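Hi all, posting the design record for the shared folder.

TITLE: backbone redesign
STEP: 1 of 1
STRUCTURE INPUT:
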């Protein structure tokens, strides 16, 4: 049973699922918690990545972290009791991940956690709690980088840990050849938007960057002052706030293209062709690194320190001055430096899942 709930998990699951379906005697059942429920945030990904349809969509989204996790835990326990999986496969650090880990642990079902050992060392980051708890109850831990593996060693988890590489790197390599120039639609007037010849690619949705007008205005002020347009697919969570501020006559954000969320293949195209990337997404930080495009991360803590070398990824606060300072740091790309593996992580993950199932 593979448990997913958010778009980064769909991407990782796609490449692993394609390996699993070629393995004789293996049956994968995908359970979608519904954490990302918007069509452009969910179903579009299943369609374009050719992921098998979920056996169940629990439709759980919204509420506090505790409320969401509790509802998922109850529903996933029922799914596991009914379907009796040999192994549970978990990705990343969402509430779906933690709920799946707790349900499987209490039912004594072996589980594999992909992207284990990632640490921000920030207790205020809710995903950090999800990562730590999942790693400590999982049966097998697969790390995307050697630094992540070292984190697991420091937490006395070495005996059940190994380096697999990053399935998101597998996906980026594979889907870059299939990437599609996006058809953009404005969230302001629902009219088509032409992709400029030169552009910055922006994704920011975290609470600390968009939860207050002050933070969001600081971000938009920086984007509106860039010398080329900023393409900003707006997350459903902060759509109403963005629309309100963009339509306020006091603000001039004419340089920002506020558009509907894009599919994965469109996002890969934007990442590969952008002048620079500004984001608070852990996934897009890595994709910028894979593409060799400079990234500015609007966060107070490092998510993937492996990318923060030679000016390739710089932290910033949601203000014009901080973002401009980060963007002005020149980057140097060393093609030989690739901490995320060799593009064959999906095979290692699939083999690990099958080996664990056979031992049960």
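Okay, here is what came back for every position:
SEQUENCE:
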């Amino acid at each position: 049973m593979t448990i997913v709930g958010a778009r980064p998990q769909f991407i990782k699951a796609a490449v692993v699922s394609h390996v699993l379906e070629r393995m004789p005697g293996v049956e994968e059942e995908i359970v979608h918690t519904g954490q990302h429920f918007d069509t452009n945030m969910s179903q579009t990904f299943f369609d374009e990545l050719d992921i098998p349809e979920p056996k169940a969509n629990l439709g759980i989204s919204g509420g506090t972290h505790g409320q969401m996790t509790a509802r998922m835990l109850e529903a996933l326990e029922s799914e596991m009791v009914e379907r009796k999986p040999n192994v549970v496969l978990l990705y990343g650090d969402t509430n779906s991940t933690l709920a799946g880990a707790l349900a499987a642990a209490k039912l004594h079902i072996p589980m594999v956690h992909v992207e284990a050992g990632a640490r921000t060392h920030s207790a205020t980051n809710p995903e950090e709690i999800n990562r730590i708890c999942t790693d400590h109850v999982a049966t097998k831990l697969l790390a995307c980088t050697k630094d992540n593996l070292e984190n697991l060693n420091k937490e006395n988890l070495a005996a059940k840990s190994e380096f697999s590489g990053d399935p998101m790197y597998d996906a980026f390599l594979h889907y870059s050849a299939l990437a599609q120039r996006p058809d953009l639609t404005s969230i302001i007037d629902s009219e088509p938007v032409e992709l400029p010849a030169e552009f910055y690619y922006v994704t920011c949705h975290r609470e600390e960057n968009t939860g207050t007008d002050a933070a969001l205005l600081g971000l938009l002020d920086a984007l509106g002052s860039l010398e080329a347009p900023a393409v900003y697919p707006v997350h459903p969570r902060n759509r109403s706030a963005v629309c309100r501020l963009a339509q306020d006559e006091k603000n001039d954000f004419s340089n920002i293209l506020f558009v509907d969320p894009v599919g994965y293949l469109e996002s890969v195209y934007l990442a590969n062709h952008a002048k620079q990337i500004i984001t608070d997404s852990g996934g897009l930080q890595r994709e910028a690194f894979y593409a060799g495009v400079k990234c500015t991360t609007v966060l107070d803590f490092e998510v993937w320190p492996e990318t923060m070398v030679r000016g390739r990824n710089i932290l910033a606060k949601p203000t014009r001055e901080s973002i401009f300072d980060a963007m002005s740091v020149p980057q140097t790309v060393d093609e030989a430096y690739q901490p995320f593996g060799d593009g064959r992580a999906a095979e290692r993950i699939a083999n690990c899942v099958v080996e664990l199932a056979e031992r049960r």
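COMMENT: The radius of gyration is 20 Å.
Let me know if anyone wants the other runs.
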